[in-house]
User: What shape does this take?
Amino acid sequence: MPQTFAEKILAKKAGLSHTVPGQIVDITPDVALSHDNTAPIYGIFKEMGGQRVFDPKMHAVFIDHAAPAPTTKHAENHRIIRDFVREQGIENFFDVGRGICHQVLVEEGLALPGEVVLGSDSHSPHAGVMGAFGAGIGRSEMASIWAVGSLWLRVPESMKIAVNGQFNPGVTAKDLALKVIDDLGADGALYMSVEWHGEAIRSLDLSQRATLPNMMAEMGAKNSFIPPDQVTLDYLAGRAKRPFELVLPDEDAAYAQSYTYEAAAIEPMVARPHTVDNVMPLSEVAGTRVQQAFLGTCTNGRLEDLAAAAAVLKGRKVSPGTRLLIIPASSQVYLDALRAGYIETFLEAGAAIESPGCGPCMGNHMGVPAVGEVSISTANRNFRGRMGTKESEIYLASPAVVAATAVAGVITHPKDI
Amino acid sequence: MNNIIKGRVWKYGDNVNTDVIFPGKYTYTVSDPKEMPQYALEDLDPKFANEMQPGDIIIGGTNWGCGSSREQAVVCLSQANLGAIVAKSFARIYYRNCLNNALPALPCPKAVDAIQNGETIEVDLAAGEIRCAAGTFNFPPLPDAVMDIFEAGGLIEYTRAKLEKERV
Ligand code: SF4
Assistant: This one.
């Protein structure tokens, strides 16, 4: 029986020959990801009567959402997490400064093809960039996994998005993601497994590929999958923490929905306030004045994103009246950017560079906008108040557009500066 | 856990979001689950909280429970002993929150089209059947794993019992 990726991997993990959409299976994940919410989850775990976690090796714990701690309350939260990992013998713990959970999971060789990553974070589908099944779950569910080692999952219907041809120069996976979300809407992939296929996807580097499953959370998807290929395997060589086995969908699998895109028809796109599916071609929002430009997050804070921004910023200055915040997604990205000379370029251009982590993406600290201000960001969400200030506006775009906007002070196409 | 649920139908439309099921203004002021039912559906149907009876059934359209993932939007209904929610589709986290709070969430588009507001219907969880004036409709029966969570009264209780058993 031909199966999609989700049907196949969930069957494998449940010890079944096959599964069908709607079926419920009990799964022991390979990775249980939690971040700053590890402390409240620990509270629920204790309420459940938990004493020792089911398997310390399953855990990947990150302090990234408000790191370093902006307030005493946050610092106390971090302290509880450090006590927890010490007490339970959790080795995969990444403290303040290491970076954003989804990015670091990949860098550490913990997001692996054919594995299941469940995370108490809505962007857990990100792990699909490596050919893993990544899905977000609630806090009580995570506590239950810690306690008993497994959780029920509903086998999702699958959606296939094939992208043919090649992208035009300056067009990125971010633009593709925004275009698809625009076409299908914020509930366009509700509860579904979204698979990306086609020549254009294969030609993207891993950094750009990652943006696609990451942003599928904004279309309601449960998980999203990029078929692992030689590029994936080369990246994992010497990095993967465990042996792994590829799980690939069957050629003739049945999809609930299928869409085809021509890469050459995609142009730079921008999401306008206050929903991610409120998307326009860049040309139609160009000229909008912006006070804050933010380059970073799990969506677009990798080396290639910083390189695209550095190419725009080289020898230029951030516009007076606009500030540019740059937060590398991880310490590794930071180091690589430093060695490549991008950090020098950013500082010379007048940017502020902060410690790796989520920063202002969800409004915790390090760049909260003022009332009435407009931000442009490389993140994945622009909901009202997302960056911490209800009375402000957020536009979402690719790294080069954010950099060009910082230089011009108004939303700008990189070719126009 | 009662396998047969019989109750009056409260029928609503598509894309009912968690803000109208449990208004955001109460999310930080009402924390006792027992106080939550009085605000259920306040911004969608002000009559609901006063008039609904235990066992009643909500019929929703597509994407029931979209928007914020707040669990209170399920707890305000499960605490009121709502019998079940039958919808064309559920937002993913809302669906999980329902089952983990032992509130049956049943996707069944055909039944939603056939059922009239105000009629009394019967849901048979074990048989996977919805019986209404227009006929009988099937939904995939809830698997044993989820029925076990139901019988325990929710995921927290279920896990607690499982842990206790393992320690004996
Ligand atoms: S960078 Fe933003 S979207 Fe990504 S994990 Fe952090 S808060 Fe969430």
User: Anything to note?
Assistant: The two ends of chain A are 55 Å apart (CA to CA).
